Amino acid sequence: MKKKILSAVLFVILALAGVLTVVPFIWMVLSSFKTNAEISALHQTLLPQQFTLENYLSLQSNFNFLRYFANSVLIAAVVTALVIYISCICGFVLSKYQFRGKNLIFGFVMMTMMIPWSVTIISRYTMFMEAGLQDTYLSLILPVMVSGFGIFMMKQDISSLPDELLEAARMDGADEFRIFHRIVLPMSKNSISAIAIFQFLWVWEDYLWPYLMIDSEEKQLLAVGLTTFNGRYSTDYGGLFAATAISIIPVLVIYMIFQKRFVAGVAAGAVKG
């Protein structure tokens, strides 16, 4: 009886949390079809009273939306691919090879996960400025191409692969890179999917670092570009909501692609080792 009551309470709490999460998103999407006057009116309605597509049609003319959107997709895709590949290689080495200092290296990787990004941002900014990487895409890629979280996830996952399988491949004449690409990577799809979702989301939503490093409008990312809707005396809420609604699409697409393996990957990285 107690378990049923507890389950019912947890269900109600999760349902309320889901409503609180989804309703603002729905309100934003519906508001993107409203005029600014209706959005700013004292009397608010969920559905638009005067349905309009002007907010979407004027995005490119009033705001270089496509350029910002393409830049964000490019950077997020490149960083995610690099993080996945580097994390897989490091996880493979740290889990299947024995060498002096392995535990020390892994301890250092874990330590980087405990240091907040904000603590090192000043020193990182100074270093990149002195290196002449201001206003370049390298300044956005290099700081995040190695992920402590990704290395941890892949080490935990790859360590569960049977050593006998790898030894059999070596006896058949496969070199280490062939073993990595043909055996390790295909058998680590769950953890790779989890890393892909997390990393793409982190890069896509990053605001402060692109704001500091990128000066050119044609190289700027969407997260920073959305601030141009905030004028000195007023804000174009309709255009802002329309641009934000479209900007969520890549995140949803990535999640839909990897969702089947996402939970399994998180669980595998948490319990294996």
- Number of alpha- plus pi-helical segments: 16
Could you give the count of β-strands?
A: 0
Low-confidence stretches: none
What is the name of the CATH topology?
A: MetI-like fold
Structural class by SSE content: mainly alpha
Gross geometry:
globular
User: Please, what is the average pLDDT?
Assistant: 86
* CATH C-level label: Mainly Alpha
Instruction: Indicate the multimeric state.
Output: single chain
Examine the secondary-structure arrangement and name the CATH architecture.
Orthogonal Bundle
CATH superfamily: MetI-like
Which series of helices and strands comes N to C? HHHHHHHHHHHHHHHH
Radius of gyration: 23 Å
Observed structural traits:
0% strand, 273 residues, 16 helices, mainly alpha
Write up this protein.
- The protein has 273 residues and is mostly helical.
- It has one domain: MetI-like (MetI-like fold, Orthogonal Bundle), CATH 1.10.3720.
- 71% of the residues lie in helices and 0% in strands.
- The chain has 16 helices and no strands.
- The protein has helices at residues 2-31, 36-40, 54-57, 59-62, 65-96, 102-112, 117-130, 138-141, 148-158, 163-171, 176-184, 189-205, 208-213, 222-225, 237-247, 249-271.
- Helix 5 (65-96) packs across helix 9, helix 6 (102-112) packs across helix 9 (148-158) and helix 9 crosses helix 16 (249-271).
- The radius of gyration is 23 Å and the shape is globular.
